[in-house]
């Protein structure tokens, strides 16, 4: 089973700043089958990035993903008030289990 | 518009059973693999189970293997999760999720809360 470790656990930033979230895998994620989700309280998780760097439909271009192998990054170029949420990475390569990271909480400073 | 609506959650005693349902609409249900993901209150997301297009292949997390059974009815556009021998640690919000053609999880329902307590 691939274990995903996200850092930091909590990130405190102000609107307009740049956010960099990290996701490290315990072994190489084949085919860059790595996704990022945004989750707000009381709402369904929302797909942001798939294939490590492809934006999902309707996702603003301030969100970008990068990385390969075992190290992946989600970058939000200029934080908007609605971006403060919990972010999860997930690997979905090959056979299950399709594991998630433990999440990074992005909070307003 | 893609919609996934879960139902069937509730309060149940340890050792009892519960069946979750997910009604899908807005897309050709039988063209997509479907999954269940759960979130323990205050914790992260955990993949639970998945089923392919024609119910030929299913998979489970080790934590539920032997107790939970996933199934689907393509004629009814519905996904199910039969949960037996429930444990306190199964308490969670259970999400019905569509697996996209790119294999990621592109649409999620609002979730159905299962509480296992005596």
How would you describe this structure to a colleague?
- The complex is a heterodimer of chains A (109) and B (118).
- Helices cover 0% and strands 47% of the residues of chain A.
- Chain A has no helices and ten strands.
- Chain A has strands at 4-7, 10-13, 19-25, 34-39, 46-50, 54-55, 63-68, 71-76, 86-91, 104-108.
- In chain A, the strands form two sheets. Chain A has a six-stranded mixed beta sheet with strand order 2-10-9-4-5-6, with no helix packed on it. Chain A has a four-stranded antiparallel beta sheet with strand order 1-3-8-7, with no helix packed on it.
- The termini of chain A are far apart.
- The mean pLDDT of chain A is 95.
- Chain B has 118 residues and is mostly beta strands.
- Chain B is built from no helices and eleven strands.
- In chain B, strands 2, 4, 5, 6, 9, 10 and 11 form a seven-stranded mixed beta sheet that branches.
- The N and C termini of chain B lie far apart (40 Å).
- The interface between A and B is medium-sized, with 25 and 23 residues.
Largest sheet of chain A: 6 strands, mixed
Query: Major β-sheet of chain B, in short?
Result: 7 strands, mixed
Give the oligomeric state of the chains in this entry, treating copies of one chain as homo and distinct chains as hetero.
Answer: heterodimer
Tertiary shape of chain A = globular
Instruction: Tell me the total number of β-strands of chain A.
Output: 10
Note the total helix count of chain B.
0
Broad structural category of chain B: mainly beta
Structural class of chain A: mainly beta
What Rg of chain A, in angstroms, do the CA atoms define?
Answer: 13 Å
Tell me the distance between the termini of chain B: 40 Å
